[in-house]
């Protein structure tokens, strides 16, 4: 009961704080006092437009050819203007720029390429294996999946560990009980699908 009263009071407070918007019954525009000077100015402008007074003269409407605009805005590069470039540059200035560039030119000696890492490459292994997941390819003595429980959330780590321990030929850690060459739930299709068809 107490929460009901609090809810009703809160709703009443919120309703009392909101502003009332005009609706069809309120004569909103009847309460506005227009500015007489602005109305007179607008009336004169409309009358002049109706009578044809103060007509706007468009360029070229009197038979004359309008002049071309000046195409030299200040602060903007004019390198696309041939005449401006000819005025600013010469063969001597180009030669000086070329000499300055030759002075700053630096030859970098090539270095040997870095050695590839020799650790396990899951992508290369996935692409090199053609058998399907679950297709028995290697002989296994145990079919227990208990060793895979620690790699449940990281199948890539299971496959890395499997290959580091001598897989797929040997499975010392019992990570490939079905003998397909892929540890636990690791799927090579992620890497195989990267190849173009």
Q: How many strands?
A: 0
Query: How much of the residues is beta strand, in percent?
Result: under 5%
The tally of helices reads 7
Low-pLDDT sequence parts: none
Order of helices and strands: HHHHHHH
Largest β sheet strand count, sense and barrel closure = none
For the residues shown, what is the average pLDDT?
Answer: 81
Rg from Cα: 42 Å
Shape: flat
Structural class, judged by helices and strands?
mainly alpha
| First-last Cα distance | 71 Å
What is the helix fraction of residues, given as a range? 25-40%
Explain the overall architecture:
- The chain is mostly helical and 197 residues long.
- Helix content is 38%, strand content 0%.
- It contains 7 helices and no strands.
What are the defining features of this structure?
7 helices; Excalibur calcium-binding domain-containing protein; 197 residues
